[in-house]
From TrEMBL:
Pfam families, sorted: Thioesterase
Organism: Streptomyces malaysiense
Highest taxon, organism lineage: Bacteria
Protein name: Thioesterase
Any GO BP: lipid biosynthetic process
Gene3D superfamilies assigned to the protein according to its UniProt record, in alphabetical order: alpha/beta hydrolase
Record has Metal-binding as a keyword: no
Length: 249
């Protein structure tokens, strides 16, 4: 498995490099997530798309770095890191917290005059939908309980004290960033948006996912998959086909 791009960029991982592909997909992980979460999607796209996945500070090989506690700073730094990869059309895919980071990075690219050609917003309410969540204010047991509820982390990892000690600080940073994020209903991008959600997601209803419609001036569609918050783990072939259908020729 290739875990880094040839330049050793700490922010970007390429698992199946396709530098000559006509389009590039940029993947943004969820709270507590790492770039490797997107390895299966990258494999399914089969090298026909140049897939790059962001590695936020504080996880895996960046575990010694402090986590970032605001979406604004995370988006600023991701936007800067992606500048060398904007030599061809970019499509963004974000899951959960990653959907909001992708949205904010898209805003920054559009401010510079060249935004992504499409945004996939997976498993996240619309940017202006505030739910008053407070996971970042809970004790460690409360954060672990939330991770179990969302069923996105192997229980064996949650039962390993050494691993927990490593991941809890960055989880708290990520939850602080996403739960203190605010956007107004008038905050929009021009890129088309496809909102994705699982039909039993405990955090996002189809109606809440559909509210992304108000945050783009371009086309919008909603896709509902069977499953919970991490529905995509069981829907990789279907997801890869959907992504391909939205990429520029």
């Amino acid at each position: 498995m290739t875990t880094a791009c040839p330049t050793g960029d700490p922010w970007v991982r390429r698992f199946h490099p396709a530098p000559q592909a006509p389009a590039r997909l940029v993947c943004f992980p969820h709270a507590g997530g790492s770039a490797t979460f997107y390895f299966p999607l990258s494999a399914a796209l089969g090298g026909t798309v140049d897939v790059v996945a962001l590695q936020y500070p504080g996880r895996q090989d960046r575990h010694a770095e402090k986590g970032i506690e605001t979406i604004a700073e995370l988006a600023d730094r991701a936007h800067e890191a992606l500048q060398p990869y904007a030599d061809r059309p970019l499509t963004f895919f974000g899951h959960s917290m990653g959907s909001i980071v992708a949205f904010e990075v898209a805003r920054r690219f559009e401010r510079d005059g060249e935004g992504p050609v499409h945004l996939f917003a997976s498993a996240r309410r619309a940017p202006s939908a505030y739910a008053g969540e407070n996971v970042h204010q809970r004790d460690d047991d409360g954060i672990i309980a939330e991770m179990r509820r969302l069923s996105g982390t192997d229980d064996r990892l949650l039962d390993d004290e050494d691993i927990l000690r490593m991941i809890l600080p960055v989880l708290r940073s990520d939850y602080t960033a996403i739960e203190t994020y605010r956007a107004t209903p008038s905050t929009v991008i021009a890129a088309p948006v496809t909102a994705l959600t699982g039909d039993t997601d405990p955090r996002v209803t189809p109606e809440q996912a559909h509210a992304w419609r108000a945050h783009t001036t371009g086309p919008f569609d909603l896709r509902i998959f069977p499953g919970g918050h991490f529905y995509l783990s069981d829907q990789i072939p279907e997801l890869a086909e959907l992504v391909r259908s939205r990429l520029p020729a």
